[in-house]
């Protein structure tokens, strides 16, 4: 346990642990020291020099993010000298930044812009000589993400996030001097550099230098095409995070306003991806039972996270046979929209424009996989992130907070509590256990499997089901995936079922979710607060097991026949392939 020291910050005497930095000590008493490159636990390199403070008795200014407190230290955080130094550094950064704030994806969440405002930095740096000398690099060939060096402040947060959260190290600094930029090695594009599109770099970036492919204009055009019927689906975790874009506290359920906003945008039909989350459990559960009872490949791995699927295809292709053949809930919904639902609406599938609202950047690339469609059309035509949905709502002037909540009531809009927890790490596993144990036992089994809940990178549990011990695991985040495979190979432990998610915390912390500033990441456990929304929905839902959903039973009776039927495999299942990277010759 760390010893405590007594220090003074801006005239206030406090006692803090001796391993605290000055910045952390200041934060503990509500003094906000400016910062840009600092991201707690991820990037603490003190290279932007915006967090400088004056320490009595020491020469010059010290970076508060890296300077540890000592007994009797006296610190000032807001003198004229500090103000001038920080202002000057911001001016240098501004002179190296292309300002397009009116069309920037970070129009409402730019940490750099917030600092420029805080220090009243003039906005005449777009034509600065420093920027004119800069060689602009635009990496925009990927179907999901893009890098724009004109907006990069070279803070390095994305580089560290990619290394520590995905465990891959796709991004790094290239070139030197004014031509320094961040990107994949050897001038490769993202799509052939081994990137899994988890979006952790986007969430770490304090500007709009790394962002999802903005496709709002595609939706705007579709909404004005009178020949198209727009059908939108919304993922479970979007309702737990969207409100943050409109001033709600982190951890607020805005499901009703979300659906009302979609209606206000002009969406013709609204379904809920929660419905196909239930459907996924039925198909995946029966696939698992079949593997257990008939000597299939074990452990079986979940397949609903496209970031994880990308990871497996790129880095551990030898385990592709372990991957469930089920499509993700997004793609199951897309397939049903263009078949079952199209028939219900009396529409030709080619006249339906299928839109999904997802917490995940990788979903954009998933929707474009060639096997995700048929007869000349794609099942999902457009994927918008939670952030993109928020932007189009704001751009349209829709008063989100004043909207009267609504619920869609179509055939593909009902869901159970099991579906709602899909968005949290461990939720897919728990939902599957609720159904699989009941089928195997032939009787009612528990609703809650709390051992697989929580935010540990790797969670394990063993359940005695129908006479056998079933070993399960839950793994989230690229770095944890790498660690789990290393552990699994070294221990030789036999797992039966493993849930993988490409993002730490699962979809509630997906790469397409609202950006949380570095300061708020330090203050709040964002993943826990958003997860709580989904577990509350689960707790208060009438049906809490996927196989209890009456609409699921109906779609099997009316259309699919039975789980794992020929029709189910045709529409709801797919295949995966080994992929390589850095193959392009330079």
Shape: globular
Q: Give the averaged pLDDT, no decimals.
A: 94
Number of helices: 20
The third-level CATH topology of the largest domain is: Rossmann fold
Structural class call reads alpha/beta
CATH architecture level-2 label of the largest domain:
3-Layer(aba) Sandwich
Q: What percentage of residues falls in helices of 4 or more residues? A: 25-40%
Question: What brief labels describe this structure?
Answer:
586 residues, Ubiquitin-like (UB roll), Alpha-Beta Plaits, Rossmann fold, 3 domains, 5-stranded mixed beta sheet, 20 helices, 20 strands, 35% helix, 15% strand
Set down the secondary structure blueprint:
Blueprint: E1 4-9, E2 12-17, H1 22-28, E3 52-55, E4 62-63, E5 74-76, H2 80-94, H3 111-118, H4 129-132, E6 138-139, E7 145-148, H5 157-166, E8 171-174, E9 181-184, H6 200-204, E10 210-212, H7 216-223, E11 229-234, H8 255-265, E12 269-272, H9 273-293, E13 300-301, H10 306-315, H11 329-345, E14 352-358, H12 362-367, E15 373-374, E16 377-378, E17 382-385, H13 386-395, H14 417-420, H15 427-441, E18 458-465, E19 468-476, H16 478-491, E20 497-501, H17 518-523, H18 526-539, H19 550-560, H20 566-572
Helix pairs in contact: 9-11, 9-15
């Amino acid at each position: 346990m760390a010893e405590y020291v007594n220090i003074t910050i801006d005239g206030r005497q406090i006692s803090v642990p001796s391993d605290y930095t000055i910045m952390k000590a200041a934060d503990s008493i509500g003094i906000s020291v400016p910062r840009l490159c600092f991201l707690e636990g991820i990037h603490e390199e003190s290279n932007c020099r915006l967090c400088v403070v004056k320490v009595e008795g020491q020469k010059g200014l010290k970076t508060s993010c890296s300077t540890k407190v000592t007994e009797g230290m006296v610190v000032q955080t807001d003198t004229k000298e500090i103000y001038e130094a920080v202002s000057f550094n911001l001016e240098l950064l501004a002179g190296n930044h292309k300002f397009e704030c009116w069309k920037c994806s970070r129009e409402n969440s730019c940490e750099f812009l917030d600092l420029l405002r805080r220090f009243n930095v003039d906005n005449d740096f777009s034509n600065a000589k420093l920027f004119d000398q800069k060689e602009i690099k635009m990496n925009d060939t990927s179907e999901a993400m893009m890098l724009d060096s004109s907006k990069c402040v070279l803070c390095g947060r994305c580089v560290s996030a990619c290394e520590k959260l995905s465990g891959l190290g796709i991004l790094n600094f290239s070139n030197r001097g004014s031509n320094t930029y961040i990107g994949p090695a050897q001038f490769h594009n993202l799509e052939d550099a081994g990137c899994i599109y988890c979006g952790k770099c986007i969430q770490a970036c304090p500007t709009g230098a790394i962002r999802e492919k903005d496709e709002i204009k595609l939706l705007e055009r579709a909404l004005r095409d009178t020949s198209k019927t727009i059908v939108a689906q919304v993922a479970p975790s979007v309702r737990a995070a969207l409100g943050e874009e409109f001033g709600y506290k982190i951890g607020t359920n805005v499901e009703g306003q979300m659906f009302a906003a979609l209606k206000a945008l002009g969406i013709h039909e609204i379904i809920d991806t929660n419905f196909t989350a239930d459907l996924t459990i039925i198909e995946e559960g029966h696939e698992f039972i079949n593997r257990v009872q008939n000597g299939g490949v074990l452990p079986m791995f979940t397949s609903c996270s496209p970031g994880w699927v990308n990871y497996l295809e790129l880095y551990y292709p030898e385990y592709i046979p372990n991957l469930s053949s089920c499509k993700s809930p997004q793609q199951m919904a897309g397939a049903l929209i263009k078949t079952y639902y199209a028939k219900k609406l009396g529409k030709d599938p080619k006249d339906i424009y299928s839109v999904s609202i997802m917490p995940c950047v990788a979903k954009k690339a998933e929707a474009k996989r060639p096997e995700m469609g048929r007869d000349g059309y794609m099942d999902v035509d457009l994927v918008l992130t939670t952030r993109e949905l928020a932007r189009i709502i704001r751009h349209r002037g829709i008063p989100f907070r004043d909207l009267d909540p609504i619920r869609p009531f179509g055939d593909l809009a009902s869901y159970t509590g099991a579906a709602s927890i899909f968005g949290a790490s461990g939720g897919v596993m728990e939902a599957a256990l609720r159904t699989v144990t009941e089928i195997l036992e032939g009787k009612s089994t528990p609703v809650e499997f709390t051992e697989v809940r929580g935010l540990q990178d790797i969670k394990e549990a063993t359940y005695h089901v129908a006479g056998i011990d079933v070993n399960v695991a839950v793994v989230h985040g690229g770095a944890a995936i790498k660690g789990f495979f290393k552990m699994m190979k070294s221990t030789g432990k036999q797992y039966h079922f493993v849930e993988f998610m490409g993002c730490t915390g699962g979809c509630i912390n997906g790469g397409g979710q609202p950006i949380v500033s570095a300061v708020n990441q330090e203050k709040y456990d964002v993943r826990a607060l958003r997860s709580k929304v989904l577990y509350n929905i689960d707790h208060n839902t009438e049906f809490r097991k996927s196989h209890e959903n009456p609409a699921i039973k109906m779609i099997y009776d009316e259309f699919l026949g039975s789980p794992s039927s020929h029709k189910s495999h045709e529409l709801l299942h797919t295949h995966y392939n080994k992929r390589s990277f850095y193959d392009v010759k330079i």
